Amino acid sequence: MNPVYLVLDGPRPFRTAFLLLWPLPWKFPLPQPSSVQNLLDDRGIIRKRRQTELNYVALRQIKRFCRRDTPLRSLYRLYECIVTSDEDELMQESQYWFHTQTTWLLKDIPDPQDPDPVRYAVLASLTDALVHAFNQKIKLGLRRGVTNTKPLLIPRFRNDPEPPLESSPQWCNHVGPLSQRLDLDSQSASIVPRGLTVLPADALSDDFRPFAKRNIIANFVQLYNI
What we know:
By secondary structure, this protein is mostly helical. The chain has one domain. 42% of the residues lie in helices and 2% in strands. Strands 1-2 form a two-stranded parallel ribbon.
């Protein structure tokens, strides 16, 4: 669809047009992130934003937005999806990362150095989960930016002895588990435990599950739906 129509059909079209056209800074800055507790208190925040502020479903189809978007911005959008259990948006954002932003290698995600320890642990777990999800698809023959338009190549890639597997950035290895369990999967979960801190990284278990090893329960199954 013509990007003009996508903008005009969305919320606050003139503000969105200005956002896209104003060239400085070229890369969009990271918005102020919400805390885990604030997101749990308002699980419908993503859908409300889509209707009243910015429609990322439309923006992800606009090339100018894609060129100005950044890996950290997308990672924080995924963080919001995980905490609020917005599975549809989680699926679409991960598809956008895998199929559209093909130069965004997961190992190159910058360290967000997030001052909120709980949010930092969720971001690290989410990054590890992306690696696990992407590699599963790569082993099955999918290739970023290729097989979404050329599916007939999948059988050939499936037999690749050295598939281009993704890996986590080094900073993830330095983010330890939470001191208490954080449940983001249950719809009834609404309170972040008091005194929640991040333990030293050497306290990480060898659990291959990216959230469980940091003492977090989360539903990230839609990351695999790419």
